[in-house]
C-alpha cells in the first residue's frame, strides 16, 4: 500500500544525475586550481633565481626565439638538474613557443640528439620540428632520445606551466591562472604577476590579475598602508565568497586603516551576497514554478475548464516523457545525427499521442460522467492505475535514461548566481506553452466553442455546436499539453511509471490555488507557489517548506474558497 | 439595552440605500424598500433588475456593499448568516422549486417545521403528536395528503412548487419571500396559488416576485417596479402600469 | 435514542454475520483441529481482522460521503493517526526488550540520540490514555479542519482537494525523523498488548473479535445518526445544501459533527489495524490509500453503510487474491474496477442486488432513482 511513500523525496533532494555531473565537473576544475597552486608554490620555492631574473627584466624580454637558446642548451645535456634549470628559464620566457616546449617535456615528446645536443620537438602527429623555431625538420638525425623526466622535473614542469599560463597568449588560460593565484595568494608569485600585468591588454584578465595581486599585497607587511587599503577595496569590489574569505583572514597585526577597509568590504560583500542568495532562491523558485506550471497547465484545461477531476493527468505527463524516451531510443539506434533534434521531434509526437489517449478516455469513460465531478475523480484514478501498470509492464519499473541535447546542458553565472541551461529553457518553454494555449482558447474557433460549451452546454448544443466533439477535443488538448509537459519534465525528472504521481497533487494545488477556470490564475499560482516554496526552504528545509506551503494553501482556500482569481457575481451563483 | 424602543422603524422589513456591486457591476443601486407587517407586495421588473439579488441580501446570501437591511426594527440582516435569518422568521422559496428529492413529502415538511435546529438535539429527536398534527394540516393545505410517503423527486413540477410553499409555511415565518411561484404552472394551478398566497398574507407578510402580469393582477396588491437595481415606481398595478418609464423599460408599449 | 428501530433488515443480516464471525472465527481457530475443513488458519485470522478494520474505515467514509456529501480524500490520515496512537502504546510496552534495551526510549529514539521521551509520548504507556488518544487525536484534527473548512463553506471538489493536501502534508511530516514518530520506518517490532504477547494465537483471535465488535458498534453509531432527524438533515445537506441553510439549519455544525464522528471511527479502525499487521508507517498517509477507501464505498454502494463494509471486503479480498496469483494484474483489475463501478454501478453492489431482487418481485416497477449525483461545484 505504500509503494509511493518515498516518492516525493526523490524530487526534493536530488534534481537529476545531470546536475550531479555538473557538480563533478566543477569539482575537477577546483582540483585543477589546487594543482596550479602547488605548481606556483614550487616555482617560488625552488627557483628563486629564475624569478629574480624575470622581475629584473620584466617587460623588455625580446620576443625572438633567441631567448630560448640558453634553456634549450640546458635541455640538451641530459641532466635532471639542467632540465630543471631550463624549465626555470622557460617559465619566465615570453616566447610563445615556451609553453609548447614545456608541454612536450611533460609528454616525452621533446627529443635531443646526444651528439649535437640539438633539441627537437615531435608534434603529436609524429612530425619532428626544430624546438627553437618550430620549423619542420626533414630528416631528423638518428638516435634522438627524449628528455628524461623525474619527480623533481615533473614538479618543475607544473610550475613552469602555471607561470607560463599567466603569460599565455590565450585569454582564458591567463584568466584561469590569475584566479589560481588569487586563491593561493602566494607572495612569490608577485613578480610574475607584475610582469603579466605590465603587458596585459585584455581588461577582463587585467582585472583578474589586479585582484590576484591585491589578494597578495593586502596581507603583505612589506607593502605601504595606502596600497594595502586600496587592495582591500579592490578585493571587496569582487563581492564574492572568496573575497570575503580573504578580507576576513587578514593578519591580526595589520594596520587599522587596512582593517577598517576590510571591515567595510566585508559588510558590503555580506549585503550583496545576501541579495544574491535571495536572487538565486527566486531563480530556483521560478524554475520550480515553471515545472509546476507545465504540470498544471493541462489540468487547467481538463479540470479548470471542463470540470473533470482528472486524476489521470499525471499519467499523461508520464506518457509524454516516455514518448521522448522512445523517440530518443529510435534516434540512437537508427539516426544518431538527429539526437540534437530529439526533443523537437518528440514534442509533436508526445502531443499527438497523449491527445489521442485523452480523446479515447473522454469518449469511452468521461463523457458519461459530466456533471458528476466526484465520479470523474474515481474513474480517472482507475484509468491512472491502468496506465501506470501498462507502462510498467511494457517498459519495466525502472527509471529510463533520457538524454539532454547539448544546448540544454551546462550553466552560466550571473553575478553570484548560477543558472543552468536546462532550467532556463524549461522556464522559457513553460511560458511558450502557456501563451500558446491562451492564444488557442482566446483566438481560435476551437477556443470559442470550448468556452461556449463549458459555459452553457445546452445552449451551445442548440446553436449547432457538436458538444460531444468539442468535449473530446478539449480533453484531447488538455491531455496533449500534459504530454508536451512530459517531454520537458523528462529533462529534469526520473522517467519512471511513477513520474505522474509525483505531480498530480501539486498540479491540483496550483489549479485550485489559482482559481478554477482561470488560466492566468494558474500562471500566477504556479510561479507564486514555486517562489514561496524556495524562499521558505532556507529557513524551514525542503520537506518542512513543502508542508508549510500545503498548510498555507489549505488556509488560503478557507479565506477564498474559489482560489486566487475566482469568478464573481451572478454567473457563479447560477 | 431596550432595543425595542430604539427601533429604527415600525416596518417589518426596512431596506435603505442598499447597493450590491459585483466586479464593478451594480446589481443593486441604492435600493430602498419597506414591507409592513401582514402586507403582501408584488415585485416586478425586467431581467437583471436586481429582484433575486434583493432576496439574496434579505436572506443573508449576499452581503450588501453598502446600505441597511433591518428586520422587525431591530435585527441587522447585513450582519447575519442565512441560518440565523431563517430562524428570525424569514422564509424563502426559490425560482426553481428546491425540495429535498430523496426525502418523502412528509419528511420535507418535517425538516421545515419550526423546531429546534441544533445538530445535537436532533440526534435524540422523536416525533411528537403535535408535529404530526401540524404536518397533517400542512399536507391538507397544500393538497399533497395522498402523496405523503412519496419521494419528493417523483412529484410533478406544480406539486413541487406547492410542497416548497408548504415548507415555507411549516417554518412559520413572519415574512415570506416567494420567487416566481407561478412559473411552469397551469392556469388553474396559478389561480389556486394566488388564492393560497392571499390567504397566507392575512397573517404573514409576503413578497412575491413575478413576471406573470395576470398573476400579479390576481393578487391585487401594491406593486414595486425594480429597474437597474433601484425602485422605478411603486403603487397599485394600474398606477404603475400608467407610468411612462415603467412602460418603456418593462411593460412595453 | 430509538432502540432497535434503527436496525433494518439489511442491517440485521449484517450484524448477525459480523457478530457471528466475532464468535465463530476465534472458536474455529482455537477449537478446531488444523485438519478440519472448517478450521480458520493462523494466517487467515489477522488477514480477516485487517479486512474488518478496513470495513469499519469504509463505514466511516460512507457516513460523510454517502450521507453528508463530503467526499474526503484524507480519511487515511485519521486512520493512520489512530494507528500511530496505538503504535505508540505498543512501542512503550516493549520496554527494555528493545535492541538497545532502553527501558523508556523506543529503539529509534536511542538510535537518533534522544535523551528523553518527547512530551507527546507521555502517557502512552497507559492503555486507557492511549485508547482515549485513538479517538481524540483524529477527532481533534477533524474538528479543527472541519471547523474552518465548513465554516468557510469550502465544498465539493475544493474540499476533496484540501483533504488530500492535509493527508499529504501529514505524510511528509511523519516521514521526517525529527517528528519523533520513527520517520520512514514508522513503529514496529511490537511485543505485547495489555500484557498478552501480540503474536499469540489467543491475542490474535481476541483482536479479531474486538475488531468485529468495533465494526458492529461503529455501524450502530452511524445507523443511529442517519436514521435520526439529524440524519435526515444530513441527507438534505447532501442534496440541497443552500436550501437547508435557508430553512435555518447551521449546515456547518451538522457537517462538523458527522465529520468528527467519522474521523474517530476511522481512528479506531486504525488502532485495531496496527496490532494485527504489526507495523504503522507514514505510507499509511499516502493520498492513494485515501482514494482507494472511497472506491471500497463506491463498490459496495454509497449511502448504505452495509454496502461500504461489503465493498471493503470485496476489494481487499480481491487484492489479496490478485497479488498472490497475478501481481502484475492487480493494478489493472483495481483500475478497471474504479472505472466500471462508476460507469455501470452508480449504486454499487448493494444497489445492483436491490434492483435485481426488486425486479424479480414486480417486474413492471420503475427502477429506483440512482443515488443522486454529487452536486456539481456550486
Automatic annotation (TrEMBL), chain A:
A single GO molecular function term of this UniProt record: transmembrane transporter activity
Transmembrane segments: 30-50, 282-309, 338-361, 424-441, 508-532, 538-557
Subcellular location: Cell membrane
Membrane topology summary: Multi-pass membrane protein
Key words, A-Z: Amino-acid transport, Cell membrane, Membrane, Transmembrane, Transmembrane helix, Transport
Gene Ontology biological process terms, A to Z: amino acid transport
GO CC term (a single one): plasma membrane
Domain of life: Bacteria
InterPro entries: ABC_transp_permease (IPR001851), ABC_UrtB_bac (IPR017779), BCAA_transport_permease (IPR052157)
Main location: membrane
UniProt-listed NCBIfam families: urea_trans_UrtB
Similarity comment text for this entry: Belongs to the binding-protein-dependent transport system permease family. LivHM subfamily.
Stored PANTHER family: ABC TRANSPORTER PERMEASE PROTEIN, BRANCHED-CHAIN AMINO ACID TRANSPORT SYSTEM PERMEASE PROTEIN LIVH
Protein name: Amino acid/amide ABC transporter membrane protein 1 (HAAT family)
TrEMBL record, chain B:
Entries under NCBIfam families matching the protein: urea_trans_UrtD
Taxonomic source organism: Aquabacter spiritensis
Pfam families membership: ABC_tran, BCA_ABC_TP_C
Keywords: ATP-binding, Nucleotide-binding, Transport
Cellular component, GO annotation: plasma membrane
Name of protein: Urea transport system ATP-binding protein
GO MF: ATP binding; ATP hydrolysis activity
Domain ABC transporter: 13-253
InterPro entries: ABC_AA/LPS_Transport, ABC_transporter-like_ATP-bd, ABC_transptr_urea_ATP-bd_UrtD, BCA_ABC_TP_C, P-loop_NTPase
TrEMBL record, chain C:
Major place of residence: membrane
Coiled coil spans: none
Keywords of the record: Cell membrane, Membrane, Transmembrane, Transmembrane helix
GO cellular component: plasma membrane
Any matching Pfam family: BPD_transp_2
Keyword Membrane: yes
Record InterPro entries: ABC_transp_permease, ABC_transptr_urea_perm_UrtC, LivM-like
GO MF entry, a single one: branched-chain amino acid transmembrane transporter activity
Transmembrane segments: 43-65, 72-91, 119-150, 157-175, 206-226, 256-274, 294-317, 329-354
Lipid bilayer topology: Multi-pass membrane protein
Cellular compartment(s): Cell membrane
Record flagged with keyword Cell membrane: yes
Protein's UniProt name: Amino acid/amide ABC transporter membrane protein 2 (HAAT family)
Species in which this protein is naturally found: Aquabacter spiritensis
